[in-house]
Amino acid sequence: MLKKLLYKIEKLRNGELEDFKILKKHIQSLDEFQYKNIIDRLKFQIEIVEKYKPKVRPAIDPIVSTELGIYRRLDDYEIGKLLEYPECCIKSFVENVRISIDNEHLKEVDEIRDDLKNKGVYAIVLPSGFIPCSLKCKEAIKRGYIGYLNKEEFDNILKLEEELKKKIVHWHFGYSEFYEKIIL
């Protein structure tokens, strides 16, 4: 997933993707230092993530996200498309102004907890910053944005996250974690 993002950023920089008018303009306006920093940091993150092969992708390096304009909310639909979020999740985020895991999500956890535990699921894991329309969203699960993980898979996520925290130094106060974790 992160490799696809890298590919899209490079294509946007070169003016080769047409579906991202606002983000293309923004990425093309970055000076060479900013652009190189995004590319280098994203490649470094990809290198780390590939060692672990997680079922759920981590949050993007907050410095990369900042430079891409994600926190400035340049265009939530374009950002969602760039990150390959499911359309239903983008729509829920934008139209319902969902900015974090909320009470509706927690009600879903209560509804599915016993069934998931019976299937050997230890935790529900999402990339930090990804707010799904539902924790049961089939498309988000298929794309690796929601994972129902057993204990071994969860421990792998924790090891990955620990390495990312050590090696991808950033100053963004909102992201102390690369994953949201709901232990069942």
Write the layout of secondary structure elements.
Blueprint: H1 2-13, H2 21-29, H3 32-52, H4 62-68, H5 76-82, H6 87-95, H7 103-118, E1 123-127, H8 138-142, E2 147-149, H9 151-167, E3 179-183
Antiparallel strand pairs: 1-2, 1-3
Commentary on this structure:
The structure is a single chain. The relative contact order is 0.16. The mean pLDDT is 93. The radius of gyration is 17 Å and the shape is globular. Helix 1 (2-13) packs antiparallel against helix 3 (32-52), helix 3 packs across helix 4 and helix 3 runs antiparallel to helix 9. The protein has 184 residues and is mostly helical. It has helices at residues 2-13, 21-29, 32-52, 62-68, 76-82, 87-95, 103-118, 138-142, 151-167; strands at 123-127, 147-149, 179-183. Strands 2-1-3 form a 3-stranded antiparallel beta sheet, covered by helices on one side.
Task: Give a brief outline of the structure.
The chain has 184 residues and is mainly alpha-helical.
Low-pLDDT runs of 5+ residues are none
Main sheet strand line-up: 2-1-3
Which overall shape is indicated by the principal axes computed on the Cα atoms?
A: globular
Strand content: 5-15%
* Distance, first to last CA: 26 Å
H/E element order: HHHHHHHEHEHE
What is the helical fraction, as a range of percent? 55-70%
Secondary structure tally: strands: 3
Overall SS class: mainly alpha
Radius of gyration: 17 Å
Q: Describe the largest sheet.
A: 3 strands, antiparallel
Question: On the 0-100 scale, what is the average pLDDT?
Answer: 93
Q: Give the number of helices.
A: 9
